[in-house]
Amino acid sequence: MVAGCSALGGRDTNQDSWHAGERLIAVADGVGGAPAGEVASRLAMESVVAAGPDMPPEEAAVRANAAVRAYAETDPATHGMATTLVIAALGADGWVRGAYVGDSVTLVQTDRVELLSSPHTLGAELVAAGHLTAEEGARHPNRNALVRAVGMEPTLQPDTWSRPAVVGERYLLCSDGLTDALDDADFLAALTGLRAADPRQCVETLVRLACEAGARDNVTAVVGDVVAWPT
């Protein structure tokens, strides 16, 4: 069972793209401040969907990077465009695999909520490398600057994760417009309260709560529940 939902939030246009397929879910968030973010996210998503659920997600992300870069070479107005990308795919072998680039979010929920992605931002990278403490990273003036995104460089190194599929697990992919609008406590409380809700109700409620909280960015959420796996 899958569902997706997106809203403008505090933006005039929506630069997010999403896909909710039976075995493949994904979210792309066009990079703000760069040209044609909505074009980059759309192209990346089209490439991921064309690759399908059986292609390793990291390979699908690399193909998306090539597609965005190739388009930018043909249209000067889109030069420099980029997008975040998170992918989760249910394989025919009963494993769920994911890849991510940028600062969009991937979560899995069972009896608890587990973060499967980490942001590719300057602040997070400096903290991970030990150059800053977590507190210093949170105060860094360029902490949210992306250091990795689809379309940013000719080559792409997505991070990956994998785990066996378990019936009843819920995967949530979202743009940072959702997590930035809700603090951790409210976000976790909302997820806990929606655990028994179907995916459609879950994503629509999360997006609505973010908008009501004053989201300054586009807000997109996609949920996939594991109900079975291919045999």
TrEMBL record:
Entries under Pfam families matching the protein: PP2C_2
Domain PPM-type phosphatase: 1-226
Listed name of the protein: PPM-type phosphatase domain-containing protein
The species this protein was found in: Actinokineospora fastidiosa
